[in-house]
Design goal:
Number of strands: 48
Helix content: 10-25%
Radius of gyration: 29 Å
Structural class: alpha/beta
Strand order of the largest sheet: 2-3-5-7-9-13-17-16-15
Oligomer: single chain
Number of helices: 15
Length: about 800
């Protein structure tokens, strides 16, 4: 943090400046301006902590019933910001010369649009991509954009963590990942699906010209996006002129077709508290909200802005708009520059070839995720250090147990660190990049320092303990459990509630939290604990002072259950280990019942009528006796959230999937993905900690046992008859009260596909339009969602229940 420059010599002013050294002049200036607006004489708004500011703070504190200390503190920032927001409806201010400020901003936080792209680029030194990753367009990509055109990202260009000057000007469908640093990005005629992601830092994106009706610009990092850095998007005059000439278009968005006039720009992560959109229009425009729903929509002349994944605390995006008047000369200059760049003029202007700008030649810097610092510093006994540790005692280490697959060069500028099915001690330090941490099975202890806003922490099955010591910005995501009944504990360190930008709260997304087993430990503090149900009852929100934790899709209507799982506590870790072991309830799969071929006579479609085809007589007992099964042709880590990706050949394979606990030699790792390839394959499933894709062919998947509460599999829309059999033991496996088992199937688009449910005696099955097939046996509930391939339109995830066959075992013919 920069120190304020002193200009007064009094003792009290000197003490105030020393105490306020952690704040930048911009932050001090904001505080001075807020207090002045509230009627407190804070002196000149110059970013200097002096006697006038101290007197204003003291007077404000006295009016709030607080001791008038007159000191600059996080609490003072928060209280003043809240009071100012309540009076004005926004959090920060912006003054821009020759601009019509529709919303409001912070003094000096965001640059104005000012000049044309041609003027801004003159003499600028550009940064070539550090690396590139190519993709293939999928049918799902094509179906999600402009109707009649292919939309999707064909390649991703990665830049550095420094302040980069980036040029995108080839009409390709290349996406941009600018990574950290205060970047400046110039975009000319982006292709459909060419998502421009500025990532971390205070970035400026100049949309210089447009040629397509659908565009995506992401000023921040993370999905959902939580970013307190000031980002600016400038829509230049030539882009307005191009949008005016586009006429009527149809855009596919969230399963619906939207008609738009002109162009549409999708903007995830916009926060009007710090971010700005500057409209440099040659014609007068007035931004207006036309939809203030889940995804707010603002229209400004011929351009429609659709805002996605915004922070729940963010004000209306309309508050972040600023209108400037551009000249006809600006339009002509940027249109001429667009033609020059698209004709290959960048090499003459900037000394970079088209191949360099497209990332086809190495930029000479490390690719995303490559190690830049050397060997990790680890304790002699990582397990003991973790069990006895606190955020302070482990702060000097850069690692504990090493990952099996670590620091890989993966898609979207991410790093992937994977641990296997063992009891691991893990320490992750954020470095600004997106990081996927997959802990796998086992009872893991995970320590997180400076977690970035777009990182995802997946603790996996087992009794895991996650300690969040500090966060890089104002958000992050942690996943617990992954379909188990083991007791997990998330401990929030005291530093998470400190050093939060004024007017913001820490936003943590917490997934797979089960209050029956899991615990949330909050640090001691003078904060009120609040619990709320939001998002149509699907999410729960826990508010604790400046911390907001969203339990994603928790669907807990009983507040008392959740409140009982939230505690106030501290470290070390060993305080919670015995309690976690006592609360865990392992899932013990029940054996399948014998199958009598004669009982097939009682089988019927879910809607009534005889079942299609002959009785599928594959049994789980037969699978256990198999001596020879097919071996995968490829066994390699996948750059995704999978622990392992197993691929089989295109013959008729016989595959048996067991966990490593049941089969230490041939068992699969938790979180693996299985692709059996083409051919008429037979897959026997004895573990739920995997995702199965049988591929093309007439395939049969027999689900014998599940040691997890969730399981996913798919069929191929290839015209071949696929059969999925869920055997009786799955339904008889105990599930703890309030929980249920979920089997998600996709790919049921062919008329000959069928799902056969072997129903144990006494069980009941019913169809639900929301959840699919619900089976209750011995009081244990199992839900089976059955849907077509995601590529099918319309993408409703349930199909005709006639494809579901109920086979009552033990029934008389």
């Amino acid at each position: 943090m920069a120190q304020s420059t002193p200009d007064r010599g009094s003792t009290e002013a000197h003490l105030l400046r020393i105490q306020a050294v952690q704040y930048t002049p911009e932050q001090i200036g904001n505080l001075q301006a807020w207090l002045a607006d509230l009627g407190y004489e804070s002196g000149v708004v110059d970013g200097i902590a002096d006697r006038d500011l101290a007197a204003a703070i003291g007077a404000f504190e006295a009016d709030q019933g607080l001791p008038p200390l007159g000191m600059v503190t996080d609490e003072v920032f928060s209280l003043v910001a809240q009071e100012w927001q309540g009076r004005t409806g926004t959090l920060q201010r912006m003054t821009t010369a020759a601009a019509d400020t529709v919303g409001a901003g912070s003094a000096g936080a965001n640059p104005a649009g000012g000049e044309s792209c041609a003027a801004l680029l003159a003499g600028l030194t550009l940064t070539p991509p550090a690396s590139r990753m190519d993709f293939e367009l999928s049918q799902a990509d094509i179906n999600s954009g402009l109707l009649g055109d292919e939309v999707g990202t064909t390649a991703q260009l990665f830049y550095t963590n420094e302040a980069d000057n980036i040029l995108i000007a080839d009409e390709s469908q290349n996406g941009v990942s600018a990574r950290d640093g205060d970047d400046t990005i110039f975009v000319f005629n982006p292709g459909l699906g060419a998502a421009i992601s500025a990532d971390g830092g205070g970035d400026t994106i100049h949309i210089c010209s447009l040629s397509k009706a659908l565009n995506m610009v992401a000023p921040a990092e993370g999905m959902p996006v939580f970013d307190s850095m000031p980002d600016t998007i400038v829509i230049h005059a030539a882009a307005f002129a191009a949008a005016s000439a586009m006429g009527h278009n149809q855009v596919q968005w969230l399963e619906s077709v939207h008609k738009i006039d002109g162009a549409q720009i999708l903007i995830p992560g916009f926060d009007a508290r710090t971010d700005r959109i500057i409209l440099r229009s040659p014609e007068p425009v007035t931004p207006q909200i036309i939809d203030d729903g889940f995804t707010a929509v603002v229209r400004a002349g011929p351009i429609e802005f659709r805002f996605l994944y915004s922070s729940p605390d963010a004000p209306s995006p309309l508050e972040g708009f600023i209108v400037e008047t551009a000249t006809t000369e600006d339009v002509g200059a940027d249109q001429a520059l667009t033609q020059t760049l698209l004709a290959g003029g960048a090499e003459e202007m900037f000394g970079l070839s088209a191949a360099q700008l497209a990332g086809l030649e190495a930029g000479g810097v490390p690719e995303p995720g490559e190690t830049e610092t050397g060997v990790a510093i680890r304790p002699d006994d990582p397990a003991r250090a973790s069990a006895e540790g606190t955020c302070e005692t482990l702060a000097g280490y850069t690692g504990l147990d090493p990952a099996e697959d670590n620091i890989t060069t993966a898609s979207y500028g991410s790093r992937y660190s994977t641990w296997r099915d063992s009891d691991d001690a893990i320490l992750l330090r954020g470095d600004g990049d997106q990081h996927f941490l997959v802990a796998g099975g086992g009872d893991d202890q995970i320590w997180l320092y400076d977690m970035s806003a777009d990182s995802y922490i997946m603790a996996g099955p087992g009794a895991d303990l996650v300690v969040l010591c500090s966060m890089e910005d104002v958000g992050g995501t942690v996943g617990l459990g992954n379909g188990d009944q083991d007791a997990d504990t998330l401990v929030i360190g005291p530093d998470v509630l400190r050093d939060i930008p004024a007017g913001f709260t820490r936003q943590l997304i917490l997934m797979e939290f089960q209050p029956e087993f899991d615990r949330l430990i909050l640090p001691a503090g003078d904060y009120a604990l609040e619990i709320d149900v939001q998002n149509l009852g699907l999410d729960n929100v826990i508010t604790y002072g400046p911390l907001r934790i969203t339990l994603l899709l928790s669907n807990l209507q009983d507040e008392s259950r959740l409140r009982a799982a939230v505690r106030i506590g501290a470290l070390p870790v060993r305080l919670y280990l015995d309690d976690m072991a006592a609360r865990s309830v392992p899932i013990l799969p029940a054996p399948a019942l014998p199958v009598d071929p004669a009982s097939w006579a009682a089988a019927h479609r879910l809607s009534g009528g005889p079942p299609p085809g002959a009785a599928p007589m594959q049994t789980c007992d037969h699978a256990r006796m198999l001596q020879t099964v097919s071996a995968p042709v490829e066994e390699a880590p996948e750059h995704s959230l999978s622990a392992l990706f197993l691929t089989y050949g295109d013959g008729d394979d016989t595959v048996v999937l067991r966990s490593v606990d049941d089969d230490p030699v041939n068992g699969i790792l938790t979180g693996s993905e299985i692709a059996t390839g083409a051919g008429d394959d037979m897959v026997h499933v004895f573990t739920g900690h995997a995702a199965v894709d049988p591929g093309p062919g007439a395939d049969t998947v027999l689900v014998c046992a599940l040691d997890a509460l969730v399981f996913a599999l798919s069929a191929a829309a290839d015209g071949e008859p696929d059969t999925i059999i869920v055997d009786s033991g799955v339904f008889l496996t105990p599930v703890v009260e309030h929980l249920y088992r979920n089997i998600a199937t996709t790919g049921f688009g062919d008329p000959t596909d069928r799902l056969v449910v072997r129903l144990p005696p006494g069980a009941a099955a019913k169809w639900d339009e929301i959840f699919g097939l619900i089976v209750v046996a011995n009081g244990y509930e199992t839900r089976i969602s059955v849907g077509p391939t995601p590529d099918d339109l319309p993408p409703r995830h349930h199909i005709d229940p006639d494809k579901i066959v109920i086979w009552p075992l033990g029934a008389s013919p």
